[in-house]
Amino acid sequence: MAEQSKKSYLSAREFIDSWEKEIYELTYLDFFTFLLINELASELEKKYFSGVRQDDFLFLNNDEIGLLAFNIGDSIQLFFEKNCFGSCQLNCPIQLNKTISSHDLLQREGLILSEKFHHSCQRKEDCLYTELLNYVVLDSLLDFYNYELGVVMDEKDHDIIVLVEFIMKVIMNFIRTRGQKWLATPDETAGEQFDRYLQNEEYSWDGGFGDLPEDDVEGDEWKVNQLGPAEVMEDFRQAYAHDYRNVPEFRVVEKFSDFMKNYLELENIRELNSEDIQEFFLVVLVNE
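RESULT FIELD:
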């Protein structure tokens, strides 16, 4: 797990200043939003607007992409604070795979009636997708084009629908793969995480910002090199604690943990190689 870096669209210092908080007041939810803003901006630049002509009315330059991502991230945090971690008891962001019950549906019945785009809501992930699309992303996107850029559009425009679906895919993937650790305890203090980013930020002479470290890199590289399989698996269990006991697919993770411990007898996670992984999935797992 070597340290990696990625381009920063919003530095930690800019984020903290815009949030008007002291570093010790920042929470895991704030840190999630900071990471999401940068992830969304990166994906929009590299995978969406890179294929849009500059004379297209939909085209955004890098500064505009960063501002749009900031607006969406800010709105998502407000939605989470008011609903998911406020009045709503469904805990959708951290129970994505759980099935929606009839009782759960009653809690959000009023919301469904006013949704512009309605998706089947069988799992909590489906409900979260629908609500973020209707009450956060679509409105943020239309406001940005209509008021920031003066481009008049509405939810019926095909180009807006395509763009909003791309944005939703990025957001939901981020919540599932990188957001669980931070959303599980959203009020926990994130001063240490932000401080680490502040220390690693490199300011360029032209006023731009350098690369930011990945959010899952903890401490010096020598510490990472000493991680044993048991420590890695425990970190994984804690990061997905809310889903771990309820999702059958996680049983494979436990079997893989036993495989590393009892069969491979690894002392360091770096000793694991592709042949070991192939043996587990093609030999050990299929014979269970």
